[in-house]
Design a protein that fits this description.
270 residues; 9 helices; rod-shaped
């Protein structure tokens, strides 16, 4: 119930009743029942106002709770999206690692086949002999087959018999100092020392390869392993310089690729 004042504004119902009562009183037409009715109406309106005032904080609480729930829901949805993205990234990494593992397994299989073929070739090229035939011959014993002596020494090296291999290579060099395999024998002597952790002796052997056989196909390998030995000794900077020298001298060699890998492992770009 509402009427509009001359300015077209809405006036509450009880104000309308009060205005009517005043007008009636002014004209002398107001009865006690009219006054009672107006009082009852005002009382009713006051109750409604009080009830509305009581319910208003509850509505605010409900609105605040709804806002909080909405915020939590949005956070959960974002967290779920992030988890899905992380899961997708992990799945990609796992797939990549599986590919690398398969490639590594394939390369290991190839290497195993190559090792088996090399061992078979060595057995075929090494004549049958009595036990102990791989040991160096006694001093004064004539050795007429340099190829057999070299292959026996190399076979001992592959089997991890580094002392026997080193002595056999030394005997080979003493008996045949100027063959096409002399540089290789010198290199493998140094390798025997390296494998046994005698890095000073290994470095001396690599230096002998570099000075005595500068055009040898073992030059790059001697440079690489000399650098490794220096690093193992704790002479890091000198070892790094040696690796960098190798890269400059033999930029396309397999040893250069290994040198670059070692430099990266040491935290050196080049």
């Amino acid at each position: 119930m509402a009427v509009r004042d001359p300015g077209c504004r809405t006036v509450p119902a009880f104000a309308t009743l009060l205005l009517a009562l005043l007008l009636s009183a002014a004209t002398g037409c107001v009865s006690s029942s009219d006054i009672d009715a107006l009082g009852s109406r005002i009382t009713s309106l006051q109750r409604q106002v009080a009830q509305a005032q009581e319910e208003s904080p509850r509505r605010d609480e409900v609105a605040a709770l709804g806002s909080s729930v909405t915020g939590q829901l949005e956070a959960l949805l974002k967290s779920e999206a992030d988890m899905r993205a992380d899961l997708a990234a992990l799945s990609g990494q796992i797939a990549e690692l599986r590919g690398e593992l398969e490639a590594t397994s394939f390369r290991l299989g190839q290497l195993s086949q190559q090792i088996a073929a090399t061992q078979q070739e060595l057995r075929a090229r090494t004549p049958a002999s009595e036990p102990g035939a791989n040991a160096p011959a006694a001093p004064g014993t004539e050795i007429s087959d340099p190829e057999s002596l070299y292959q026996n020494a190399y076979g001992d090296y592959l089997r991890g018999n580094y002392d026997l291999a080193r002595m056999a290579f030394e005997q080979y060099l003493a008996s045949f100092p100027d063959t096409d395999l002399s540089d290789n024998a010198t290199y493998w002597i140094a390798e025997c020392h390296y494998r046994q952790g005698r890095f000073d002796a290994a470095i001396a052997g690599y230096d002998l390869v570099l000075s005595r056989y500068p055009r040898s196909d073992k030059t790059a390998s001697a440079l690489l392993k000399r650098a490794y030995a220096l690093i193992e000794k704790g002479e890091r900077q000198e070892g790094i310089a040696q690796l960098q020298r190798l890269i400059r001298q033999f930029p396309s060699s397999d040893e250069t690729n290994l040198a670059r890998q070692r430099l990266r492992a040491l935290g050196v770009d080049r």
